[in-house]
Structures are given as C-alpha cells and as structure tokens.
Amino acid sequence: MPIGVSSDSDWAVSLLTNTALADITATLEPAGVVSPVSDRVLTIGIVAGEASGDILGAGLVRSLRKRYPNARFIGIGGEEMEAAGFHSLVPMDRLSVMGLVEVLGRIRELVAIRKRVRSFFLTTRPDVFIGIDSPDFTIGLELQLREAGIKTAHYVSPSVWAWRRKRIFKIARAVDKMLTLFPFEARFYQEHDVPVAFVGHPLADAVPMQPDTGAARDALGLDRNRTVLAVLPGSRAGEVSRLGMLFLSAARWLQERQPDLQLVIPCVNRARQKQLNEMLEELEVKLPVTLVLGRSREVMAAADVVLLASGTATLEAMLLKKPMVVGYRLSGLTYYIATKLVKVPYVSLPNLLAQRELVPELLQDNATPEALGQAVLDWLQPDGGVDSLHQAFCEIHDQLRQNANERAAEALVPLIEAANHGA
C-alpha cells in the first residue's frame, strides 16, 4: 500500500530508563515565555492526513508562530490547523482513507494529490517541510523533498520498531529529524543514527494528573455510589462488528454477578450508536446500558474499570488512571500474519510503555466473555492491585507530560535556521 494514509498501530519494544529519558529530553527544556527567533517571512510546509494529525498540527503551528510571527503555514491540514492560520491546498478529508480496498479505490486521486503537493513545494521551496503521521503518504513525500535539498521532519513515528523494521532505512534518507511521542521510540532512532527528539504526548499535557471521577459521573447523570464500567469496543464499524457483541456478552456476565453495575458505552458517532443498539436488541437477556454520543474521555473518567479494544484509547484510559482490561480479535488469517510480523511482546500502550504487564490483554481465542468479565471483576476486588497500578500510571504520565507542542517547535528551530543559513 504505497500511499495509504492511516496511522500506524500502537506497538512498541521497550521503555527507556529514567537516565536514558533524561539524556533525550535534556536538550529540549520546556519553554516558558517564548521570544521570537526571527521576524523573517518564512514558509513552513506541513501535511497532515487525518483528525489526530490535524490536532497535532494546530498545536505545532501555534507554537512555531511564537518563534516566527511572520511565517506562513501551507500544505494539507484540517479545520483545527486552518483555525490556527494554516492554508490547506487540498481538503484534508481527501486523504483520510482507511483500509486496503478503500485506498485502492482512491489510488488515482491520492497519487494526483501527492504529485500536486510535491510540485508545489519543489517550486515554493519551504524553509522546512513537516509530515505529521500518515506515514504511507508523507514519508515518500519527505524523501523526494529532502533529495531536492529541502529540510524535512516527521512528527509521530511510524511503528517501525514493531514491524516492517527495514523501513528505518528509508526514513533515515527521508528526514532530517524525527519527532516522537514516546520515549522508547527515540531510543530506537538513536540506535539507528537517525536524528530524533522525544517531545512527549500532547494528550498527557491535556489530561490532568488526577481526574475528577465524581464530576464526570455528575455530568453523565450516573450514580456516584455505584460501580461504573465503561465499555469501548472501538470507533470503526469493523471493530464494533468484531468486538461489540463480545464486550456486551462480557458485560452481561458481569452484571449477573454484580447487579448494581452501571454500564456506559461512548459512541463515536450516530452510526456506531445505531450499530450497538442493534446488538443490544439481539441479546437474549435485556442489558441496561447507557449509550453516550461522543464524550469518551468523560465516560472513562467516570469509570471504576474500562473494558476496551486495543488502540489509542488505552493511552487515554492510562492517563485517566483507570484500571482496564484490553481485548481484541482479528480475522484468523490477519492474526496469524501479525504474530509472524510483529516483534513486540504487548499490544496495549500501558504495557508497552512499562515493558511489563500492567493491565491484562486478552487476544483472539483468549478473548471470551467469561475471561474478559473475570479480568474486570479482579480489578474490583479490595486487593485487586489498583493502588500500585495508579502509581505506575502516574509515573508514565509524568514522563509523557513534556509540553509537547513547545518541545516540537523548539526541536524544529535548528532545521529552520540551518535552511536559512544554507546548511
């Protein structure tokens, strides 16, 4: 899939020691009041291919503008970036394609967009070009621009440390600097002599160290005195098809053993809400569940335990300091191939970041309603280990809370200055 734009999966190999983490972050102290580096009129090119990249791009544009108030920002971005003063050459949603079949159906358009953007930047020659995530689209573009003498950076590492590791050689040719969200990624690039800056994760900056569970329950109309289970079977139709009934069956198993359990499911949109409603109607025994449109962070904040699919939601649940049970199923063939290709011992970010099993992962045949339900029930026991889990989550949160937008901008200043001095 040469130019698909979906994000890489959440995989990793090891967490840096505190000493190694300090070595990486020492050169990027958090910025306080930022003075402009230059009032020159600069051009900064950026391409983001999906909503998460749009959010990262907006924060980066605002932070770079503090340093270069007369810079113009142009490329491909979404509403968040445009609100920060970015000019998009193409609507970002034309790049937001997931899956092999969908990409193949749009391949001509995607090729044409990349050719147009490449030609624009080869003519305009920005002071720096930054690809944000969407590696199948942006890494190739970065390589072409760098070969033409334009400084390039990539924000959000592909999962090269987990699978398809030979991509590191192309990345090394494509970028002058890699900006990573997680510390273990920086170690991997250092080992391969690729210039890198660990900048932290903006979500860790946004989520408070001690979320207010009571306030979240009040906002959702939930009883403060009853146990709350948040259930997140995924955000895409395919995920919900594979995991929705499994998670609902686990919730039913739990409620038979703990009748006062409050079940809450956030739905990313009305289509997922309809899909889950239909699944609830298929259950032989009526299951009282509150479906909430959006507000996934609020739902997790309100919970005692979260049952969720492997993915970025596990990071958010960890930052909210919530005990969780991670479940996932793929098609048999996909799972078999994944086990041969993936080189990491865990699939959820809390375990990957800690490099040990902080939370249970129940995958494929091990993901049964009874096993998932029992794992949730274990967290609810008085000696379930919640206190030690909370401490581990706080330590990881503190490591990731690095003022990411400012650090990312600061890491790019040397590239921009080198471009302007002909380096």
Description:
The structure is a single chain. This protein has 423 residues and is an alpha/beta fold. The protein folds into two domains: 18-200 and 402-420, Rossmann fold; 213-399, Rossmann fold (3-Layer(aba) Sandwich), CATH 3.40.50. It has helices at 18-25, 51-67, 79-83, 100-105, 107-124, 135-147, 167-174, 183-191, 202-206, 213-220, 237-257, 270-282, 296-302, 313-319, 332-341, 349-354, 369-379, 386-400, 404-420, and strands spanning 43-48, 72-76, 86-88, 128-132, 152-155, 177-180, 196-198, 228-232, 262-267, 289-293, 305-309, 324-328, 361-363. The chain has a seven-stranded parallel sheet, with helices on both faces. α11 links the parallel β8 and β9. The longest helix has 21 residues, at 237-257. The protein is elongated and about 70 Å long. The chain starts with 17 loop residues before the first helix and ends with a helix.
